[in-house]
Every structure is written in structure tokens, then in C-alpha cells.
Amino acid sequence: MKLLVAIIRPDRLEAVQLALRKVLDENDTYRITVSPVEGHGAQQGEVEFVRGQKVRPRMIAKLQVTIGVNDDYVERAISAIIEGARTGSVGDGKIFVLPMLECIRIRTSERGGDAI
Question: Residue 34 pLDDT > 90, yes or no?
Fold first, then answer.
């Protein structure tokens, strides 16, 4: 099991969701959580002008998409995220792949891949 954490542009969320649905069929198992986050990478914020002065915001609004998947679906999910999130410009985001040691469904106490 892996936990994929993707930082994407807010306007690319729908495209990422569509790409995931296209790549992962009804029998494939994944769960998704989306949270608003702020940060910066290489682009360091877009320059704005305030009262005639150049101002570079410190943080940029992004979305953090967290997806738990079974090992068989990791590469397909990564490809779908890239397909949906890519614009070709600096600031498209990052994907982090983390090992998921355990997943537990609270309602039934199922564990592991069955709980995803």
C-alpha cells in the first residue's frame, strides 16, 4: 500500500479526478482527500504590483491531494495525476510517494488493502 501526496494547482483538481476515473476502473480501489494548502516551490510566487511597488507573495494557494492505493495501482494513479495536473509551466506541483504501513477502516475494523 502506498500513500500518494500530490500538490497541484487548484484549477487542475477536476482534470486530475477525471484522469483518475479514466485510468482506474470501477474495481480498482483508491481513496482521495483534498485539502487547501499554501506554499511555494521554484516559482516563489507571482510578482504583483501594490501601490507601484513590486511585491512577491510568500505563499501560493495550492491543493494537497492525498490518495491511498494498493501497490498494483500506484503507477497508474501517478500517471493519471501527472496527466490531469500538468500544464507545462513552473508551479505544476509535486507528487510524493510514501509507504503506508497500515490502513484501518473504523466502521468494520478491516485492515490492509481491504480497508482501502
Answer: yes
| Domains within the chain, CATH numbers bracketed | 2-115 (3.30.70.120)
Burial of 84 (0-12, 13-18, 19+ CB in 10 A): buried
46-61 pLDDT tens trace? 666 777 777 766 788 9
Least confident of 14-23, 50-59, 105-114: 50-59
d(CA 43, CA 87): 14
